[in-house]
Protein backbone atom coordinates (compact mmCIF):
# COMPACT_ATOMS: atom_id res chain seq x y z
CA UNK A 1 0.00 0.00 0.00
CA UNK A 2 1.50 3.35 -1.01
CA UNK A 3 1.96 6.23 1.38
CA UNK A 4 -0.31 9.20 0.93
CA UNK A 5 1.34 12.36 -0.30
CA UNK A 6 0.78 15.81 1.19
CA UNK A 7 -1.26 16.69 -1.91
CA UNK A 8 -3.48 13.59 -1.42
CA UNK A 9 -4.14 14.58 2.20
CA UNK A 10 -4.95 18.20 1.29
CA UNK A 11 -7.18 17.13 -1.64
CA UNK A 12 -9.25 14.95 0.70
CA UNK A 13 -9.94 17.75 3.22
CA UNK A 14 -12.58 19.57 1.12
CA UNK A 15 -14.86 16.58 0.54
CA UNK A 16 -14.45 15.58 4.20
CA UNK A 17 -15.52 19.09 5.31
CA UNK A 18 -18.54 19.05 2.98
CA UNK A 19 -19.60 15.62 4.24
CA UNK A 20 -19.27 16.70 7.89
CA UNK A 21 -21.40 19.79 7.31
CA UNK A 22 -24.07 17.86 5.41
CA UNK A 23 -24.19 15.08 8.00
CA UNK A 24 -24.80 17.70 10.67
CA UNK A 25 -27.60 19.19 8.57
CA UNK A 26 -25.93 22.60 8.41
CA UNK A 27 -25.98 25.15 5.61
CA UNK A 28 -22.90 27.13 4.62
CA UNK A 29 -24.60 30.22 6.11
CA UNK A 30 -25.11 28.46 9.47
CA UNK A 31 -21.53 27.22 9.50
CA UNK A 32 -20.24 30.69 8.58
CA UNK A 33 -22.16 32.20 11.48
CA UNK A 34 -20.80 29.65 13.97
CA UNK A 35 -17.17 29.78 12.78
CA UNK A 36 -16.78 33.41 11.74
CA UNK A 37 -15.46 32.19 8.36
CA UNK A 38 -17.29 33.70 5.39
CA UNK A 39 -19.47 31.47 3.20
CA UNK A 40 -17.30 32.00 0.13
CA UNK A 41 -14.20 30.75 1.93
CA UNK A 42 -16.09 27.74 3.30
CA UNK A 43 -17.43 26.92 -0.16
CA UNK A 44 -13.95 27.14 -1.69
CA UNK A 45 -12.51 24.97 1.10
CA UNK A 46 -15.16 22.31 0.49
CA UNK A 47 -14.66 22.52 -3.28
CA UNK A 48 -10.89 22.19 -2.97
CA UNK A 49 -10.08 25.55 -4.59
CA UNK A 50 -8.87 27.02 -1.28
CA UNK A 51 -6.07 25.38 0.68
CA UNK A 52 -6.97 24.70 4.30
CA UNK A 53 -4.96 26.66 6.84
CA UNK A 54 -4.46 25.70 10.45
CA UNK A 55 -6.52 28.72 11.56
CA UNK A 56 -9.51 27.67 9.40
CA UNK A 57 -9.27 24.01 10.38
CA UNK A 58 -9.07 24.83 14.10
CA UNK A 59 -12.30 26.87 13.87
CA UNK A 60 -14.06 24.06 12.01
CA UNK A 61 -12.80 21.37 14.39
CA UNK A 62 -14.13 23.39 17.32
CA UNK A 63 -17.60 23.80 15.79
CA UNK A 64 -17.80 20.14 14.80
CA UNK A 65 -16.38 19.12 18.21
CA UNK A 66 -13.90 16.72 16.64
CA UNK A 67 -10.12 16.48 16.80
CA UNK A 68 -8.16 18.24 14.08
CA UNK A 69 -6.73 14.86 13.04
CA UNK A 70 -10.19 13.82 11.84
CA UNK A 71 -10.51 16.84 9.57
CA UNK A 72 -7.28 16.09 7.76
CA UNK A 73 -7.65 12.31 7.83
CA UNK A 74 -4.57 11.65 9.93
CA UNK A 75 -3.96 7.95 10.54
CA UNK A 76 -5.15 6.57 13.84
CA UNK A 77 -2.48 6.13 16.47
CA UNK A 78 -3.85 2.82 17.70
CA UNK A 79 -5.29 4.37 20.87
CA UNK A 80 -8.97 3.32 20.92
CA UNK A 81 -9.99 5.84 23.56
CA UNK A 82 -12.33 8.68 22.66
CA UNK A 83 -11.10 12.01 23.97
CA UNK A 84 -14.20 13.52 25.51
CA UNK A 85 -14.51 17.21 24.71
CA UNK A 86 -17.89 18.48 25.86
CA UNK A 87 -19.59 21.10 23.71
CA UNK A 88 -22.33 23.35 25.07
CA UNK A 89 -24.91 24.52 22.55
CA UNK A 90 -28.32 26.07 23.24
CA UNK A 91 -27.81 25.41 26.96
CA UNK A 92 -27.31 21.65 26.40
CA UNK A 93 -24.00 19.85 26.93
CA UNK A 94 -23.02 17.27 24.31
CA UNK A 95 -20.25 14.82 25.18
CA UNK A 96 -19.10 12.85 22.10
CA UNK A 97 -18.73 9.13 22.75
CA UNK A 98 -17.74 8.08 19.22
CA UNK A 99 -15.49 9.15 16.39
CA UNK A 100 -17.14 11.00 13.48
CA UNK A 101 -18.64 8.93 10.70
CA UNK A 102 -21.56 6.54 10.74
CA UNK A 103 -23.88 6.60 13.72
CA UNK A 104 -22.78 9.23 16.26
CA UNK A 105 -23.04 8.56 20.01
CA UNK A 106 -23.30 11.37 22.55
CA UNK A 107 -24.10 11.75 26.19
CA UNK A 108 -26.46 14.73 26.42
CA UNK A 109 -27.20 16.80 29.52
CA UNK A 110 -30.22 19.09 29.33
CA UNK A 111 -30.74 21.39 32.32
CA UNK A 112 -34.12 22.93 33.10
CA UNK A 113 -34.76 26.18 31.23
CA UNK A 114 -37.51 27.96 33.15
CA UNK A 115 -39.56 30.41 31.14
CA UNK A 116 -38.53 29.07 27.72
CA UNK A 117 -41.13 27.67 25.39
CA UNK A 118 -40.31 24.43 23.55
CA UNK A 119 -39.41 25.08 19.93
CA UNK A 120 -39.89 22.01 17.76
CA UNK A 121 -37.20 21.53 15.09
CA UNK A 122 -36.50 19.21 12.20
CA UNK A 123 -33.36 17.97 10.46
CA UNK A 124 -32.22 15.02 8.38
CA UNK A 125 -31.55 11.71 10.07
CA UNK A 126 -32.76 9.36 12.78
CA UNK A 127 -32.29 9.73 16.52
CA UNK A 128 -32.33 7.12 19.25
CA UNK A 129 -32.42 8.30 22.86
CA UNK A 130 -32.05 6.42 26.13
CA UNK A 131 -32.78 8.14 29.43
CA UNK A 132 -29.95 7.62 31.93
CA UNK A 133 -31.22 9.97 34.69
CA UNK A 134 -34.07 12.41 35.19
CA UNK A 135 -37.39 12.59 33.36
CA UNK A 136 -37.38 13.50 29.67
CA UNK A 137 -40.23 15.35 28.02
CA UNK A 138 -40.25 14.48 24.31
CA UNK A 139 -42.45 16.47 21.98
CA UNK A 140 -42.67 14.57 18.70
CA UNK A 141 -45.10 15.96 16.16
CA UNK A 142 -48.47 15.92 17.94
CA UNK A 143 -47.28 13.45 20.60
CA UNK A 144 -46.32 14.50 24.14
CA UNK A 145 -44.29 11.78 25.88
CA UNK A 146 -42.50 11.49 29.22
CA UNK A 147 -39.65 8.98 29.43
CA UNK A 148 -38.11 7.80 32.69
CA UNK A 149 -34.65 6.30 33.30
CA UNK A 150 -34.28 3.07 31.38
CA UNK A 151 -36.75 4.03 28.64
CA UNK A 152 -35.79 4.65 25.02
CA UNK A 153 -37.30 6.16 21.89
CA UNK A 154 -36.30 6.23 18.23
CA UNK A 155 -37.67 8.64 15.65
CA UNK A 156 -37.16 10.19 12.24
CA UNK A 157 -35.81 13.70 12.84
CA UNK A 158 -37.80 15.04 9.88
CA UNK A 159 -40.71 14.94 12.36
CA UNK A 160 -40.78 18.20 14.38
CA UNK A 161 -39.34 17.40 17.82
CA UNK A 162 -38.09 18.88 21.08
CA UNK A 163 -36.30 17.34 24.07
CA UNK A 164 -36.15 18.74 27.58
CA UNK A 165 -36.54 17.95 31.28
CA UNK A 166 -40.06 17.18 32.46
CA UNK A 167 -39.36 18.80 35.83
CA UNK A 168 -36.78 21.03 37.51
CA UNK A 169 -33.98 18.43 37.29
CA UNK A 170 -31.33 18.01 34.59
CA UNK A 171 -32.09 15.07 32.29
CA UNK A 172 -29.17 12.89 31.18
CA UNK A 173 -29.44 10.97 27.91
CA UNK A 174 -27.50 8.63 25.69
CA UNK A 175 -28.18 9.77 22.13
CA UNK A 176 -27.37 7.91 18.92
CA UNK A 177 -27.78 10.00 15.80
CA UNK A 178 -27.65 8.51 12.34
CA UNK A 179 -27.87 10.30 9.06
CA UNK A 180 -30.57 9.51 6.57
CA UNK A 181 -30.94 5.75 6.29
CA UNK A 182 -28.81 4.88 9.34
CA UNK A 183 -30.86 3.52 12.21
CA UNK A 184 -29.91 2.19 15.63
CA UNK A 185 -31.82 -1.12 15.13
CA UNK A 186 -33.59 -0.71 18.46
CA UNK A 187 -37.30 0.04 18.51
CA UNK A 188 -39.03 2.40 20.92
CA UNK A 189 -41.63 1.11 23.33
CA UNK A 190 -44.51 3.35 24.23
CA UNK A 191 -45.82 3.32 27.78
How do you describe this structure in short?
The protein is of the alpha+beta class.
Give a structural overview.
This protein is an alpha+beta fold. Helix content is 27%, strand content 27%. The strands form 2 sheets. It has a 6-stranded antiparallel beta sheet, with no helix packed on it. The protein has a 3-stranded antiparallel beta sheet with strand order 6-5-8, with no helix packed on it. Helix 1 crosses helix 3. Mean pLDDT is 83; it is low at 181-191.
Question: What descriptive keywords fit this protein?
Answer:
191 residues, six-stranded antiparallel β-sheet, 5 helices, disordered C terminus
Give the assembly state of these chains.
single chain
Count of helical stretches = 5
What is the average of the pLDDT values? Answer: 83
Order of adjacent strands in the largest pleated sheet: 1-2-3-9-4-7
The helix/strand order is: HHHHHEEEEEEEEE
Percentage of helical residues?
25-40%
Q: Write down the overall geometry.
A: elongated
Radius of gyration: 18 Å
Biggest β-sheet strands, sense, barrel: 6 strands, antiparallel
Tally of DSSP β-strands: 9
Taking the alpha carbons of the first and last residues, their distance comes to: 54 Å
Helix/sheet category = alpha+beta
* Beta-strand residue fraction: 25-35%
Low-confidence stretches: 181-191
Layout: helices, strands, pairs:
Blueprint (H helix, E strand, L loop, with lengths): L5 H18 L4 H8 L3 H9 L6 H11 L3 H5 L14 E3 L2 E5 L7 E7 L15 E8 L2 E5 L2 E5 L4 E5 L4 E5 L5 E8 L13
Antiparallel strand pairs: 1-2, 2-3, 3-9, 4-7, 4-9, 5-6, 5-8
Amino acid sequence: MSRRTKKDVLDAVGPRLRELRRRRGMTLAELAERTGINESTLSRLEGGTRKPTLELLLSLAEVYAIPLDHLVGAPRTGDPRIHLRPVTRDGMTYIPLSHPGGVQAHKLLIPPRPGTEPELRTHAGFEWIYVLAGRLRLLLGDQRLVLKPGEAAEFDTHVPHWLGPDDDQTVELLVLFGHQGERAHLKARTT
